[in-house]
Structure formats: structure tokens, C-alpha cells
Amino acid sequence: MAMDKRYEELDHTADLRLRVFGATRKELFANAAFALFDRMLDLSGVGRQVVQEVGAAGADAEETLVNFLDELLYRYDTEGFIPRECEITRVADADVHAVCRGDIFDAARHEARAHIKAVTFHDVAITRAGDGLQVTLTCDV
Amino acid sequence: MADHRLIKIDDWRWEIPKEGPMRVPGRIFADERLMEDIRNDDCLQQVANVACLPGVIGYSFAMPDIHLGYGFPIGGVAAMDIDKGVISPGGVGYDINCGVRLVRTALEASDVEGRIDDMVKALFANVPAGVGSKGAIQKASEADEIKILRRGARWAVDRGLGTAADLEYTEENGELPGADPNAVSDRALKRGRDQSGTLGSGNHFLEISRVTEIFDETAARAFGLFAGQVVLQIHSGSRGLGHQVCTDYIKVMLEAARRYDIQIPDRQLCAAPIASPEGKRYYGAMAAAANYAWNNRQVIMHLSINAIERALGISPNALDAHLVWDVAHNIAKFEMHKVDGRDTKVLVHRKGATRAFGPGREGLPERYRGVGQPVLIPGDMGRQSFVCVGTDKAEETFASTCHGAGRRLSRHAAIDRARGRNIVKELAAKGIVVMAGEKGTVAEEMPEAYKDVAEVVSVMHHAGISRQVARLVPMGVVKG
Question: Pick from B244, B407, B441: which is nearest to A114 by CB?
Fold first, then answer.
């Protein structure tokens, strides 16, 4: 089943809580990356000309997901890399590999909203939802 | 969530009785009104979760600005037995040593009438804010960054970006002992290198305020505060370096918790024994990040003072800026406290809470020994902030009190509410000049997104933990 909604924002007073959907685990990981950066920036003005490969590992699927997102935040913080779209080329419980296309942050061209400092491990669990999967991410802003 | 029983102890104190895996009861400071909000949130479950950690002493505390966090609630305090207890990165948070400093000046509000716009513009231009902002001082070399992690605010002061007195009036003298730069990863170092002297985004801010009311003349005199005075508040933390230290050690602690068989009700509460190699390394890295934050606020203070002098065209002597105090909001520290009547060294986690040492405590500068430690409680950008003072009675909470207003609305709800409105103009109509590094920040941080800090401060005042000294009202704000 194709999900029309990639993620939704839930009410959380202090931080940011995002519920991410995906028909498959690959789509779930790609949509989680999209959710994070869609919330931090206006992605409509972001190009796809910069390509980076991103990998991460973890003790289980949830840790792998959080570590993957952490790697993307790290690259954004240090290099300004904005992944507009991530194609998940391989994902297992213990590791993930992605090809991400985007642009390098430029204050003159890109509109930033509140910065996400980190994705937390708080209550993170990948669960079945209908025919697909979902996960709720609590982010420190 | 499990429905915990809540017992009212008195007008300001509530208790969650010890149940199931809890090792101690929970103790929440709130009045009836605030408790209505708190009850509707899962944060009481988080208070109960913290009470399950090994070695927690007395109570799992929550301050009246408690709200839902991850792992610990925001506004949570837990003191640990140093032999049997654990240290948890979730009890400190991602923005290690996020904190506030208050700078007093010789100016009165009438001296800056019509000049606030210029002052805010100068602050905005001089102190880098928002995403991707780079430091305004010369980029720190790798060797400098290591020195910053070891020596904290002293690094800036040694370079002429402040005075020795600034260190005297900073918690821990701006240099937490035991910092171990070797325990800080290359990733964290890389994330922090460009960011010294930058404000950051989100709820971080600079605020020019005026003192509108003095509640405690003696303490205000000791702190150098008087009615009508112009003061500056600086709220920032350890930037990307601190976030990465927390991220790195959450991973270490997830493994450690399995290895040491520590039962945790939430992954984000992962922890290791204080005395274990993992515990010691996290403490060393956390202290290094705390020092980075103190240096950051020191550099920001220097940049801000210069900006204000230039904007007003006055000399340093005429501005006569001095640091009143600098507090840490997110930190774990070894401190001496009374446990069963005996002076005992404990590890206090404060996650969105402020130390509130009473009179006579070691670690306070001579000038404040008689009255107690200044406690700085910033509010939202439209209403007010408070300066309070720690008391002897604060020992009840391991000398901890509230840290701010606490959000009432989610960021999402705040943006919805702000749709079609111009928050900057609304604040300007109230005489408050606001500039922000990021467009979305002002809506997310608008005054009505927060509780009134006066309610929060009043609870701790009446509970006898931190007494009100002065009220500050905003005139100009730079948001990250």
C-alpha cells in the first residue's frame, strides 16, 4: 500500500514528536530522514545536486534508525549537507546504507526553522500499522 | 501510562508513593493550578521512572516547571549515592550545561529610551545566532578547543574576553573539575570547533531587560541590582559539541546498562555505575562539554558588551557591565549535601533545574556568602523573568529549584496559533524589540507558548527553596 502521508507532527510540549510512516522498512527510514529535514527547513527550495552515501549501524532496528538520523544531523551540522531525498539501498536490523541527494546549506537561499539537536531513544519502537510500519521519534529541539 | 497515585503533602508539595520498581518516592513541587497541567502530561510517569534508577537518594524530584522530556522529565532532579548509584546522560540531556547568565550595568531604563532598536541590531550583528552560525571570534584551533574543554570560561578570560571577576561569579568558576577531553569524540570536537561564541537556535536568546521590582533589598544590594536598572540575560549552551557528547554516550550507556544489568524503564534513561569505566568517561566528557558551554557564554557576554557600548557610543566605564551570576540548567555534579544528617558527597543530576545554594555555602563568592546564591529564572520574551536567591531550606531538594517558565503549547500548536499574526509586531506594540536568527523561531517561542514564570517562581518561593529578589521585564530580545 502506498502511504500518502510520509509523517505527521504530534503534540509534545517541550520537544518535537514526529510519527513516521512507511510501507516497507526502506521507505520508513527514508521518510524518517525526510521528516527530520522537512521540519528543519523549507525543502522545496533545496536542490539534489550533492550526492552523499550514508551508512549507520546499531544493536537493533531502532538503534540503527536513530544512529542513521544522527549521522545525517552530524553532516548537516558540520558540512551543511541537507539530504532532500534518501534512497535506502540496504537495510537490516543491524545496519543501513543510503544514497542521499541534496544541497549544502546556504543562508541566502535556504530557509531554516528551529534546529533539531538530536533524535532521542525515548520510547522509540518500530511497529506495524495497517499494511505498513510506523515509528514515533522524539527530537530534542 | 500507569496511573500513579498522587498525594498532596501541603500547598506546594505532592508525592508519588513508592510502588513497584521505584526505589524512592517522587516529590513534585506545584500548586493546585500547575498540578492540573502536570497531571495531563506523561511527565509524572517520568518522575516515577527516575525513581527506579539504582542509588537514587531520598526522592525523584520535580520542579514546578516540570514537563514531558525524554528519559528524565524536564525539571527533574535526582541525587545519587556515589558508591551504589548510576550516572545517566538522560539525566543531563543533549544541551549539556545549557544555562543563563545575568549581566548588570550602570544604566537606567531612561538612559536607553529610543535606543533599544540600535542595541538589539548591534547584538544581532555581533553575536552569531541561528542554524549554521559560525563563531565571531577567530576560529578556535584544535589545541584551543582542548584547552576550552579543560579550562572552560578561563580560556576566554585568558584571551582578554572577560575579567577574573567573571570567573568568580560563575557557578564552579566556569571550570568543572574532572573534565576529560580524551573522552570527547572527534565527531563532537568537529561539531563544536566553529561554534564557540555562537548563540544557537530554539529557545536560546539574548535579552535586554529592566529591573522593575525589588522584593528583597538585602539580596538585591549584594547582587548589585536596583529598580530601573538595565541588565542583560544570556541563554545558551554547549552547542553541537554537547549534543554529540550526549548522543555518543547514550550509545555507550545502552550497552553498559545491559552489561551491568541495570533495569531501565525507558532506553533514554540508560546509565552506568558512577564508579565504572563507562560512568567515569561519561562524567569526564560531560564536564568537558559543560566547560565548553561556560566558555561559550563568556565569549557571548564579551561580544554583547562590546556591541552595546558601540551601539550607545559609551565607554566601558560608563556601561560598567559586571557579571551577576551564571547558572547551569542541564548538568550532573558532585556536591556535598546532608544525607541522614551527615555531610555526604553525592552526584546531583539536574535536568532543567537550577542549583540554589543557601547562605554560607562553600563555592559562593565572598559577596554572596551572607545572602546565598543568585538563581536566574528566565521567562518568555513578552512577560518577565526573575532573580531569586537560594536558601538553607533548599537542602530539601539537594539545593535545586526551577529553571524557567516551561512550555504550555507544543511548537506545532504555537505555529498554528501564530498563523496570520505577526508576533514581532505584537511584541513591538508592547515596547519589546525582537530579532531572530530563524524565521520560524519567533512563532514557536511566542509568549503564550509558555506558562507564566511568575507562577513557577512563586511555588518555590512559598515552599521556601528559592526566595524572590527582583523582577525583570524584557525591552529587547535576540532569538537564536
Answer: B441
Residue type, B117: D
By the CB < 8 Å criterion, does B55 face chain A? no
Domain ranges of chain B: 7-479
What pLDDT does A31 receive? 98
Average pLDDT of adjacent 10-residue blocks, chain A of 141 residues:
78 87 97 96 93 96 96 93 97 96 92 87 91 95 87
Cα–Cα distances in Å, from B264 out to A126, B52, B269, B279? Answer: 19, 7, 6, 16
Q: Is B95 part of the contact surface with chain A (CB cutoff 8 Å)?
A: yes
ipTM: 0.88
Average pLDDT of the residues in B366-393: 97
Is A33 part of a structural domain of the chain? yes
Q: Which residues, at least 6 apart from A119, have a Cβ–Cβ distance to it below 8 Å?
A: A36, A66, A69, A70, A73, A137, A138, A139, A140
Interface A:B, Cβ pairs < 8 A: 112
Query: CB-CB: which of A105, A111, A141 is closest to B411?
Result: A141
Interface test with B, best of A70, A110, A116, A120 (most B CBs within 10 A): A120
Q: How far apart are CA B287 and CA B282, in angstroms?
A: 8
Interface probe for A, chosen from B412, B416, B441, B444 (most Cβ of A below 10 Å), is B412
Say yes or no to pLDDT of B430 above 60.
yes
**The CATH fold of domain B7-479:** tRNA-splicing ligase RtcB (3.90.1860)
User: Any idea which residue has 531550606 for its cell?
Assistant: B393
Q: What does the pLDDT read at residue B259?
A: 95
CA distance B230 to B209: 6
Number of domains in chain A: 1
**Would you state the pLDDT for residue B265?**
87
Specify if A31 maps to a domain: yes
Q: Which grid coordinates are listed for B433? A: 524589540
Please, what is the average pLDDT of chain B? 94
Q: Which residue of A has its CA nearest to B246?
A: A118
